[in-house]
What we know:
Elements: H1 4-20, H2 23-32, H3 37-56, H4 67-85, H5 87-91, H6 98-109, H7 125-140, H8 142-149, H9 157-164, H10 177-201, H11 206-217, H12 235-248, H13 252-259, H14 263-267, H15 270-294, H16 298-313, H17 328-336, H18 353-371, E1 380-381, E2 384-385, H19 388-414, H20 419-430, H21 451-465, H22 469-472, H23 477-480
Antiparallel strand pairs: 1-2
Helix pairs in contact: 1-3, 1-4, 2-3, 2-7, 4-6, 4-9, 6-7, 6-21, 7-8, 7-11, 8-10, 10-11, 10-12, 10-13, 12-16, 15-16, 18-19, 19-20, 20-21
Amino acid sequence: MIHFKAIGKVMGALLMLFALAMLPGAGFAFYFGTDDLSALLLSALFTFSVGSLMFFSFSRQDQNIRKREGYLIVSISWLLMSIFGMLPYLLSDMAMNIPDAIFETISGLTTTGATILTDIESTPKGILFWRSMTQWIGGLGIIVLTVAIFPLLGIGGIELFVAESPGPTSDKLHPRIQETAKRLWYVYLGLTILVGTLYFIGGMTFFDAFNHALTTMATGGFSTKNDSLGFFDSPFIQYTAIIFMFLAGTNFTVIYFGIKGKMDRVWNSDEFRAYITVVVLVVVLLTAPVVFYSGEGFEKGFRDTLFQAVSLITTTGYVTADYTSYHSGLTMIFFMFLFFGASAGSTSGGIKFIRHLTFFKNSWLEFKRIVHPRAVVPLKINGVRVTGKIITHIMNFLLIYLMIFTIGSIIVSLMGYDLLTAFGAVATSIGNVGPAIGRVGPMDNFAFFDPFTKIFLSFLMLLGRLELFTILVLFTPYFWRAN
């Protein structure tokens, strides 16, 4: 039996918190005197009212969060946040239709960064900040935030944390799940403030620095400029973005141990070492071709290579150059980055390095098992033996991921779009990246898609952000059976 009263109470708390997140955008609208102030205030009031009604309609005795309720809460809450999050777009003078508003909102919350806006710089300041705030909220997840600051709810927070936290595993920094969530958010908040300060020192206005700080640490990629970070032709700003995109793509548990001075815990992470190795190899191998085909100087070519590689691998999606203009071979290499993803336990999307690492290690060991069929050849990550259950889970994830990419690409191409555009749109949506190839390259947007395709791509964004199984399990008969 599923406890729907418990689900309703938690979702009410989430909507109340979500409504409060709309108020800073209203503050910027008031400061700049833009006409989106009423839209943001009305949206916040309506969302808070609905959340309050849901929260206070159920008593504390109604709370009984188990695994099933956890998956339902996460899935339905992200859907509700998408619906209420689009209200500022619909109520403002932007004349945005529902499919566009849903696409923009889900792209923000899932930190995908794809946009249907054709002129970002003419968008009202309050709405621009709300776009950035949706990405910051979606970075570590509003449910993780709620578990951190609402321990008085008496919720079995571990079920929500596991259902939403990125990656195949959720490392706990503390035996109490509320303390784990709090410490993750302290790291997240601290790094956001730090990168925002550096952006401001580098020459951005306070508004631009604030917005880009939110979307950098969320690995979201929404910008206040049409040319993304390429608008700020500043090596200082771009190198700062590279460093913090890389950090945002690092497992926050690893960052926490690094801050605490426990460097042995950092360097003993197989995933972190693989993450650094791949980024370094990519830059070493691609810098010369990029310099050659772009015609830029070495420093600019190196910076563009490093920036685009880190941006795509971490699924941030900022751009400083059009990588599709270099060479078709380089375009395909950059396209492959859409399937990387950074570390589990980070704010990045995609498949994640830990899954790639497990897959390749297990595949390599399989050759040894073939030669020595009676030998016990365990797979180890971080010196710990990986169980067969986890290996099976990861293999299934990779297979389902590729199946969704293939079927999704066929569906988009059947809607009348060329194959490169279909591949790019589906890969960047399920990987929560932003830019891709075809008509959705780094200098393009998603405004040309028809309403059905926008809704379909939005669904793929949610699937990718919640690691496939959180949503797909709801479509199985096993989930709804009593036993």
